[in-house]
C-alpha cells in the first residue's frame, strides 16, 4: 500500500491533534479542524489504511485512533518542522546557563537540566562527565603548614579535586613550585588510564628525595579521577508527568517514578552518541520505558563529548518543541564550557 500525499497530510493532522489533546482522533474531528479538502468518509477510509500500514492504532472498535510508535517515527524523521524558539525562551536559556557558570561544570549542567524541565514540561535528565575520559590539566602543590601540603588536581573538564599530603619534613615554597612543575610536565594531558608504569617510574626518578610527595600523589590522582567515573545523574521535573493524562493511572505513574529513580536504567536511556537522538516506545531497550519517548543529546568541551542531557516522557510529547529547546540548550552549554575553558587555561 502506497504512502501518498493525502495519507501523509491525514497522518500529520492526527499526530498533531493527539499530541495537543491526548484524545483518540476520529475522522469527523479531522474533517472539522483541518482544512484537507476531503470528506469525513474519505478520511475514515484513509485512516483504516494507515492503521493497516501500522502508522495508527485503535484502542477500541468504537473509538478514534492514535499514532503508533511507527507513526511517530515517520513524523519525526520525515515531516517534523522544528519549533522556532520565542525571544523569551532564548533569553531564559542564555541568561540562566551563563549566570550559573563561573564555568563550574556541575553548576552549568544542573542549571541546564532545570531549564530543560521548565521549558518542555517534561522530566529532564543529565549525565555528568566520566573521570576516565578526563585529562589532567593542572596540578598544584600548596603549603598548608609545616607537615601538610594541599594537592589541587584540575581536569580538562574543570573538575577540581583536593587532597592533603602529610610530609615528614617541611618543604619551602620554591621547592613546591619546582615539584608542581615536574608533576605537570609528566602528567599534563594524561587520562587516568594513561598513567602507566613507565610514567610512574619516570616520575619517581624526578621526585627523588621527595618520596612523601611521590607516595601520596599517585594514589591521590587515581582516587580523584576514578571517583569522577562514578557518574552522577541529575533529574528535574519528575512530577511534570502528572500533567499528562497518560499518568493519571496510578500503576503507570508508579512505574515511571520507579524507572527514573533507577540510575543504571536512566543511564542506559540517555547514553546518547549523537547531537540529537530520539528513541520512541519500543526503541527503548529498557523494559519499563517501552511506552516512553527519550530525546537526548551530547554536550561537549572543545568538541570532546562529556556527557548526555535529555528528556523522558510519554510518546505523545511535542517533539518539534522539545528538539528545538534541547538543541539550543546544548549549544549554550558547549559555548559556556568552551569559553570557561579558555578563561581558565
Care to give the gist of this entry?
The protein is built from twelve helices and ten strands. It has 345 residues and is an alpha+beta fold. Helix 2 packs across helix 3 and helix 6 runs antiparallel to helix 12.
CATH-derived architecture of the largest domain: 2-Layer Sandwich
Uncertain segments are none
- Shape type: elongated
CATH class designation of the largest domain = Alpha Beta
The CATH topology of the largest domain: Beta-Lactamase
Radius of gyration: 27 Å
Keywords:
single chain, 345 residues, alpha+beta, Arc Repressor Mutant, subunit A, Enolase-like, domain 1, 3 domains, 5-stranded antiparallel β-sheet, 3-stranded antiparallel β-sheet, 10 strands, 48% helix, elongated
What does this molecule look like?
- The protein is of the alpha+beta class and 345 residues long.
- The chain folds into 3 domains: 5-79, Arc Repressor Mutant, subunit A; 87-128 and 232-344, Beta-Lactamase, CATH 3.30.450; 132-229, Enolase-like, domain 1 (2-Layer Sandwich).
- It has 12 helices and 10 strands.
- The protein has helices at residues 5-21, 27-33, 40-52, 69-79, 87-99, 105-120, 173-187, 197-206, 211-229, 250-260, 263-269, 319-344, and strands at 56-58, 65-67, 123-127, 136-145, 148-155, 160-166, 233-236, 277-280, 292-301, 304-314.
- The strands form 3 sheets. Strands 7-3-10-9-8 form a 5-stranded antiparallel β-sheet, with helices on both faces.
- Strand 5 and strand 6 (160-166) form a beta hairpin.
- The longest helix is centred in the last third of the chain and has 26 residues, at 319-344.
Amino acid at each position: 500500500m502506497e504512502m501518498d500525499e493525502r495519507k501523509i497530510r491525514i497522518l500529520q493532522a492526527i499526530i498533531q491533534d493527539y499530541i495537543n489533546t491526548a484524545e483518540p482522533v476520529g475522522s469527523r474531528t479531522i474533517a472539522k479542524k483541518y482544512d484537507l479538502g476531503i470528506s469525513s468518509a474519505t478520511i475514515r477510509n484513509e485512516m483504516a489504511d494507515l492503521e493497516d500500514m501500522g502508522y495508527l492504532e485503535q484502542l477500541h472498535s468504537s473509538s478514534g485512533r492514535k499514532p503508533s510508535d511507527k507513526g511517530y517515527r515517520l513524523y519525526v524523521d520525515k515531516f517534523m518542522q522544528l519549533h522556532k524558539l520565542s525571544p523569551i525562551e532564548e533569553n531564559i536559556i542564555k541568561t540562566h546557563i551563563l549566570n550559573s557558570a563561573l564555568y563550574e561544570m556541575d553548576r552549568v549542567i544542573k542549571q541546564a537540566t532545570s531549564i530543560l524541565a521548565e521549558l518542555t514540561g517534561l522530566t529532564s535528565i543529565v549525565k555528568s562527565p566520566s573521570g576516565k575520559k578526563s585529562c589532567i590539566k593542572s596540578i598544584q602543590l600548596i603549603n598548608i603548614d609545616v607537615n601538610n601540603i594541599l594537592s589541587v588536581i584540575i581536569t580538562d573538564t574543570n573538575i577540581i579535586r583536593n587532597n592533603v599530603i602529610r610530609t615528614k619534613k617541611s618543604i619551602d615554597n620554591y621547592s613546591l613550585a619546582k615539584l608542581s612543575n615536574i608533576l605537570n610536565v609528566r602528567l599534563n594531558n594524561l587520562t587516568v588510564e594513561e598513567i602507566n608504569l613507565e610514567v610512574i617510574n619516570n616520575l619517581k626518578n624526578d621526585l627523588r628525595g621527595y618520596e612523601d610527595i611521590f607516595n601520596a600523589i599517585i594514589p591521590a590522582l587515581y582516587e580523584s579521577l576514578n571517583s569522577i567515573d562514578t557518574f552522577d545523574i541529575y533529574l528535574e521535573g519528575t512530577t511534570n508527568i502528572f500533567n499528562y493524562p497518560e499518568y493519571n493511572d496510578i500503576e503507570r505513574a508508579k512505574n515511571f517514578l520507579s524507572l527514573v529513580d533507577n540510575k543504571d536504567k536512566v543511564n542506559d536511556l540517555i547514553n546518547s552518541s549523537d547531537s540529537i537522538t530520539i528513541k520512541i516506545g519500543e526503541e527503548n531497550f529498557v523494559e519499563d520505558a517501552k511506552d516512553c519517548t527519550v530525546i537526548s543529546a551530547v554536550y561537549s568541551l572543545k568538541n570532546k563529548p562529556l556527557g548526555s542531557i535529555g528528556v523522558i516522557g510519554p510518546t505523545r510529547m511535542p517533539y518539534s518543541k522539545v528538539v528545538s529547546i534541547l538543541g539550543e540548550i546544548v549549544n549554550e552549554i558547549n559555548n559556556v564550557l568552551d569559553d570557561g575553558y579558555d578563561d581558565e587555561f
